[in-house]
């Protein structure tokens, strides 16, 4: 049976990639989009087939129109969107950022009550998702670990969200670990940031795009995980995986790596 | 309860590292060694406590002496050793190479009959083991993959056993995959070896020790797994994991990555 | 004194980048372009100021119009273009490919006669140019070397031109070197291509763009040079260097690395 | 003509490697050693041929005994040793650390007066030496640069001497450079150490030995230099180069990279 998908934010940059993705899949069907500023004469430009319903207002959406609510909207809209999806029996797949920890907790609680699956992922790029998954697994065997992330010079914040998420995942599982208290630095801060004893280093250089390395060391050996994102197009590989799996879940899951 | 361990090949280079490892663990106890050429006056030199039984001949071994048979012997001895262990209710953990595919199949069959656990691992280095495990998992999402292994210039054979094992693991899981039939090479063999469509490249240079990279590429992104072995001491991290888990298994497992 | 530049092929993709580059520099002035298919009403679109002469036909060019002939045209035109430049006292800077070894030799000979400088570079990306320069220098101290180049899956030929150029440069300088004649491969071709004993490995994966590594090994140490090209825009950094230096040369030089 | 070499500190770990090196070369001859605690019956053990003079006291040394003074002694002795060499017409090649900037300046001044060559190198590993040389050269074209050095977990100080030397060399040549003043960090110190705007990151992990990377970024491209030292044996490649070149110099040079 074909899974029916509604895309919220279908006119945005990521939304348009999502439309193209769903149009290209054989077991998923685009049945509706929510695009507040789109008009009927933009249908072709937005790659919407004649059978796709175009909504400008969330309130008008017929809940039967889709099984999955795929959200690439904006921080201001995402919480209400996901609540709407859960309230109306649609499984949310959310690539929009901006949910607070409290909002996420509320949405997860509601999804459990309704036994409704869903996925919220800050990063749908499969290379980043697998890197985080593998890092968490390797840290059980290699508690000594540091993270280096490298981004283009225009990125103004550091560390990257993915690097911080990776540090948090590792922190949850790695055995108790003593860092070196008697280290001496002759250049301040050269040992980088410190997240619960996990050192994090941020590199910013022109030419680079978005890259992350996790370095593990043990007696006589080392393990390195690296991912490179060259293009936001890479997000769609993870969206595809989420669309395949979301209807088999019975609660909202945070992090694509948790359903692989 | 303390697990009792017999080490076969305790006087060899790897066996000696194994003795040191078991001596350092708190939930495992070294109760016996098999060391055909060792004499009683070498006990101290071999790091054997007074309570450890020293056997020079397999036939003399009392099967009750140990729960686990840890084997670092030689290709000519390993098959009969593992059969002996299984026949006498000891769970084999085998780091010795040289078993044929047929011998492995027979031993697995026997272990199943007796519901006896065991592990045979060509490589106990956790960085290599995790690399293989992760590579197999990533290949489900990234069917485009190539392997580069790099070793010291004195290694005369190529590719390395680990690289070939990695290719086999990937081949078992990756989606059907078309390679580029219309590729043109202006320098023969520049595209490397080909294992069922997976390209394998072997580098041999002085200074290098033993390293392997698995490179995955997808639309707009890349994932790279890398492991470096600088020292055979690294094997012991995997032996420790095997000793922890082997008594919970109920059959002989090939590849440490399959019990993580 | 301002250097005057004519750009041949100013309407092409690389030519347009070159126009933007020259317009942005303070010691170089764009005085003319050769663009056979461009018309006067395209001047603004081609970023040509009112003082820039627009030629559609090489024969009409006034030799006094420029000191430097910057060529981003097509293989069929480049030889005659460079001869024209040399014949008329303009120093050629050539990014167009397609010259044969014989043609290059003739042009160099003519430039020497006329004491006229010039640069022909197959690759103007400074990361690639420096990689080649450094590789040639390192090979004097590290004769053991292998090359790995990695490109997107759509590249149909292997190895890349830069990799082959690097191998040639290394071959010219490295001390006599014995490769391992008694190597055994259990997977055919796994040791890669062989250029005079220098192994070359080509990787082709989606997601990758254009990357090259040169690996040197010596007793107890290794040196690795790597360059990544993410965008053809990178070529312009080398064009800038060539424009700065070409008028100080007194012959045509092949390879930007030879004038750094 | 054979160059005659005296090795000071010939009984130490590095000194012994130096003795083996000189014994293996065809154009250099070991004529004397200074080894305060060595006795005549240790000659064989120290690999000293019958013709090699063994001095226990610097004052006894006959200045005619050697052309080159190769010093692998201790910080407390090195300054007086190099002065002695210069005073007596021997060209010093110094691998001992511990000279202050003032002492180095004095020794250089004296060498210039006497037109006597010499080399003082904190690091004789050719991979590190070439890395520093190439980094300085690349920085002219790529002013955006960061350094990552990685060492074993037992190294208590950070950054490494080589990383700091690299930063200093780059700082001397790179064009004026503005760093990002409006950067926001959500994890303190994550951007690493800062040497005149050059970011330096130190990684400390078990398994690692001694490694350094210099990362350059430019529009659409990146250049990475990496060196790995696995073994102190690697120092001897640079000592060989210094022995070859030192008699052609007419002053004391700091840094092997300055005579390549």
UniProtKB/TrEMBL annotation, chains A, B, C, D:
<feature type="binding site">
    <location>
        <begin position="9"/>
        <end position="14"/>
    </location>
    <ligand>
        <name>NAD(+)</name>
    </ligand>
</feature>
<dbReference type="GO" id="GO:0005829">
    <property type="term" value="C:cytosol"/>
</dbReference>
<dbReference type="GO" id="GO:0016726">
    <property type="term" value="F:oxidoreductase activity, acting on CH or CH2 groups, NAD or NADP as acceptor"/>
</dbReference>
<dbReference type="InterPro" id="IPR036291">
    <property type="entry name" value="NAD(P)-bd_dom_sf"/>
</dbReference>
<feature type="binding site">
    <location>
        <position position="152"/>
    </location>
    <ligand>
        <name>(S)-2,3,4,5-tetrahydrodipicolinate</name>
    </ligand>
</feature>
<comment type="subunit">
    <text>Homotetramer.</text>
</comment>
<feature type="domain" description="Dihydrodipicolinate reductase C-terminal">
    <location>
        <begin position="128"/>
        <end position="260"/>
    </location>
</feature>
<feature type="active site" description="Proton donor/acceptor">
    <location>
        <position position="151"/>
    </location>
</feature>
<dbReference type="GO" id="GO:0050661">
    <property type="term" value="F:NADP binding"/>
</dbReference>
<dbReference type="Pfam" id="PF05173">
    <property type="entry name" value="DapB_C"/>
</dbReference>
<dbReference type="Pfam" id="PF01113">
    <property type="entry name" value="DapB_N"/>
</dbReference>
<keyword id="KW-0220">Diaminopimelate biosynthesis</keyword>
<dbReference type="GO" id="GO:0008839">
    <property type="term" value="F:4-hydroxy-tetrahydrodipicolinate reductase"/>
</dbReference>
<comment type="function">
    <text>Catalyzes the conversion of 4-hydroxy-tetrahydrodipicolinate (HTPA) to tetrahydrodipicolinate.</text>
</comment>
<feature type="active site" description="Proton donor">
    <location>
        <position position="155"/>
    </location>
</feature>
<feature type="domain" description="Dihydrodipicolinate reductase N-terminal">
    <location>
        <begin position="4"/>
        <end position="124"/>
    </location>
</feature>
<keyword id="KW-0560">Oxidoreductase</keyword>
<comment type="pathway">
    <text>Amino-acid biosynthesis; L-lysine biosynthesis via DAP pathway; (S)-tetrahydrodipicolinate from L-aspartate: step 4/4.</text>
</comment>
<dbReference type="InterPro" id="IPR022664">
    <property type="entry name" value="DapB_N_CS"/>
</dbReference>
<dbReference type="InterPro" id="IPR000846">
    <property type="entry name" value="DapB_N"/>
</dbReference>
<keyword id="KW-0028">Amino-acid biosynthesis</keyword>
<dbReference type="GO" id="GO:0051287">
    <property type="term" value="F:NAD binding"/>
</dbReference>
<feature type="binding site">
    <location>
        <begin position="121"/>
        <end position="124"/>
    </location>
    <ligand>
        <name>NAD(+)</name>
    </ligand>
</feature>
<feature type="binding site">
    <location>
        <position position="43"/>
    </location>
    <ligand>
        <name>NADP(+)</name>
    </ligand>
</feature>
<feature type="binding site">
    <location>
        <begin position="161"/>
        <end position="162"/>
    </location>
    <ligand>
        <name>(S)-2,3,4,5-tetrahydrodipicolinate</name>
    </ligand>
</feature>
<keyword id="KW-0520">NAD</keyword>
<keyword id="KW-0457">Lysine biosynthesis</keyword>
<dbReference type="GO" id="GO:0009089">
    <property type="term" value="P:lysine biosynthetic process via diaminopimelate"/>
</dbReference>
<keyword id="KW-0963">Cytoplasm</keyword>
<comment type="similarity">
    <text>Belongs to the DapB family.</text>
</comment>
<protein>
    <recommendedName>
        <fullName>4-hydroxy-tetrahydrodipicolinate reductase</fullName>
        <ecNumber>1.17.1.8</ecNumber>
    </recommendedName>
</protein>
<dbReference type="GO" id="GO:0019877">
    <property type="term" value="P:diaminopimelate biosynthetic process"/>
</dbReference>
<feature type="binding site">
    <location>
        <begin position="95"/>
        <end position="97"/>
    </location>
    <ligand>
        <name>NAD(+)</name>
    </ligand>
</feature>
<dbReference type="InterPro" id="IPR023940">
    <property type="entry name" value="DHDPR_bac"/>
</dbReference>
<dbReference type="InterPro" id="IPR022663">
    <property type="entry name" value="DapB_C"/>
</dbReference>
<keyword id="KW-0521">NADP</keyword>
